[in-house]
Amino acid sequence: MSPDEIRSPATRGQVAAWGLWDWGSAAFNAVILTFVFGPYLTKAVGDDLPGGISASTWLGWALGIAGFLIAVLAPVTGQRADAGGHRKLSLGVFTGLTVLATVGLFAVKDDYHYLWIGLVLLGAGSIFIEFAGVSYNAMLRQVSTPHNIGRVSAFGWSLGYFGGIVLLLVCYVGFIKDDALFGVSTDGGLNFRVVALFAAVWFAVFALPVLFKVPEVKGIPADRRPSFLQAYRKLFRDIRDLYRSDRHTVFFLGASALFRDGLAGVFTFGAVLAVNVYGFTAASVLIFGVAANVVSALGALTAGRFDDRTGPKTVIVVSLVGMLVAGTVLLFVSGSMMFWIFGLFLCLFVGPAQSSSRTFLARLSPVGQEGQMFGLYATTGRAVSFLAPALFGLFSFLFSSDRAGTIGILLVLLAGLLAILPVRRPVDTAT
Questions:
Q1: Per-residue pLDDT tens digits for 221-260
Q2: Which of 270, 281, 325, 384 has its CA 20 to 30 Å from the CA of residue 173?
Q3: What angle do CA 23, 29, 30 make, to 5 degrees?
Q4: Residue ranges of the Major facilitator superfamily (MFS) profile domain (predicted)?
C-alpha cells in the first residue's frame, strides 16, 4: 500500500463527515457515562442496594472488567481492520453496537433490581465505543495531510465537545430539570430512560456521514491476512520490533497512558468534587459541564494551530503544566465561584492535550498500520486506567477528605508530564 493511497487530500465534506462522528459520540461519553445516566445508575437505581457494597463500587468494577477486555482485544481488532481493509466497516459495526447498548438502558428502572442490567450495558457500551474509536482514530490520516493534521484532529475534538454542549442542554431543558420542557414523567426514572433513547438516536444519526463520505482503505490480499491467533503473535513481534527500531514510540505510548488516565480522572471525579467539596447542586453541575465543554472545545481549536506549527509535544507539555497549576490551586480554595474559575481554567487545557496526543501518534504511525497503533494506544491507556481512581480513593481515605483525592489525580498528571519530556518529537514520514 503506498502512502498516497491513504494520504491523498480529503475534501472539506469528508473532514466534516469524519468530525461529526466525534460530535455524535458525545451522546455516550458525556451523557451516558459522565453527566446523566452514570449518576442516575449509582444515585437513584442503586441507592438502596443491599449487601454493603455501593453501586458506585459495582460500576467501577464493571468498567474495570470492560477496560481489561479492551486492553486485550483492541490492538488485534485494529490490526485486523487494517489488514482486511475494513476500518469503515469496523467503525460502523461497533458504533451500531454502542447504539444498541444505549437503547437497552431504557429498561433500567429506578429500582436496584435493574442495576445489573445497567452495569452490563454500560460496560458493553464502553467496550464497543472504544473499539469504534480505534478505527475512527486510524482514519485521521485519511482526512488530513502532514500540514493540517493538528487542525483536523482538533476540529474533531472540538465537535465532540460542542456536541456534548448541545446534547447536555437539550437533556437538561427537555428532560431533567423540575419543569422540563417535554414533561416526561419521573416515575421509575422514565425521564432518564428516555434520555438514553434520545442519546442513542443522536449518536446513530451523526455517525452515518463518515460511513458514506470517507472512502475505505485497501487491505492486503486475503491469503496474507493473519488469523486471530496469528494476529496476537504478530502484535508481540511488532511491539518487539517497534522497541528496537523506534523505542520513542513505545515511550510515548507509556507516557500518554499516564496523562490520559489523569485526564480521565478529571472527568470522572470532577462532578463528585463539585458537589461534595465546592457546594454545587445537581443542576449546577450539569450547567458547569456545558461550560466546561465550551472551554475545552475552544482550547482544542486554538491549540490545533500550535500543534501544526510547533508540534504536538509542545502542546501536550504546556497543557499538562496548565492543568497541574489549576489543580494545585483547587486544593487550597473553597466555594463554587473558585471552582468555576479554576475548574474552567483547567478544562481549557484538557482538549489540547487530548487532541495533540492523537496527532502525536498519528504522526508516528507507519502508513497502513494506523489501526494497529491506535489499538495499542487504547491498550496502553487501559493498562494503567486504575491509577487515577485508586490514588483518588487512597488520598481521600488517608486524609478523610474528597478534596485530598485531587492529589492522586495531580500525581498521575505529573507522572505523565515527566514521562513525555524525554520522548523525541514526531517527524511525519511524508513531510
A1: 656 666 667 767 776 777 787 788 778 888 898 899 899 8
A2: 270
A3: 80
A4: 1-427
CA separation for the pair 321, 318 (Å, rounded): 5
227 lies in some domain: no
Please list, in sequence order, all residues whose beta carbon lies within 8 angstroms of the beta carbon of residue 288, skipping any fewer than 6 positions away.
274, 280, 339, 340, 343
Does some domain include residue 425? no
Give residue 55's pLDDT: 79
Per the structure, the complete domain to which residue 286 belongs is given by 10-215+235-420
* Side chain identity, residue 29: N
Cα angle for residues 117, 123, 128 (degrees, 5° grid): 120
The per-residue pLDDT for 429 is: 40
Mean pLDDT of 298-320: 88
* Ranges of H-type helices in 85-222: 87-104, 115-138, 149-171, 190-213
| CA terminus-to-terminus distance, the chain | 18
Report whether 199 contacts 43 (CB < 8 A).
no
For the full predicted model, state whether its pTM sits above 0.70. Answer: yes
Is residue 151 within 8 A of residue 309, CB to CB? The reply is: no
**How many structural domains are present in the chain?**
1
Looking at residue 211, its pLDDT comes to 94
65, 59 contact by CB (below 8 A) = no
- Residues 163 and 172: beta-carbon distance below 8 Å: no
- pLDDT, position 4: 39
C-alpha cell at 378: 487504547
**Whose grid coordinates read 477496560?**
67
5 within some domain: no
As a whole number of angstroms, the distance between CA 242 and CA 253 comes to: 11
- 147-157 confidence digits (pLDDT tens): 787 788 878 87
Decide if 125 contacts 98 (C-beta within 8 A). yes
Chain center to CA of 60:
16
Q: Average per-residue pLDDT in the chain?
A: 83
Contact predicate 141/4, CB 8 Å: no
Q: 316 falls in which pLDDT band (50, 70, 90)?
A: very high
Q: What is the DSSP string of 375-389?
A: HHHHHHHHHTTTHHH
Q: Is 285 left (phi over 0), alpha (psi -120 to 50) or beta?
A: alpha
| Interacting residues of 430 by C-beta distance below 8 A, sequence separation 6+ | 3, 7, 145, 146, 367
Contacting residues for 11 by C-beta, under 8 A, at least 6 apart: none
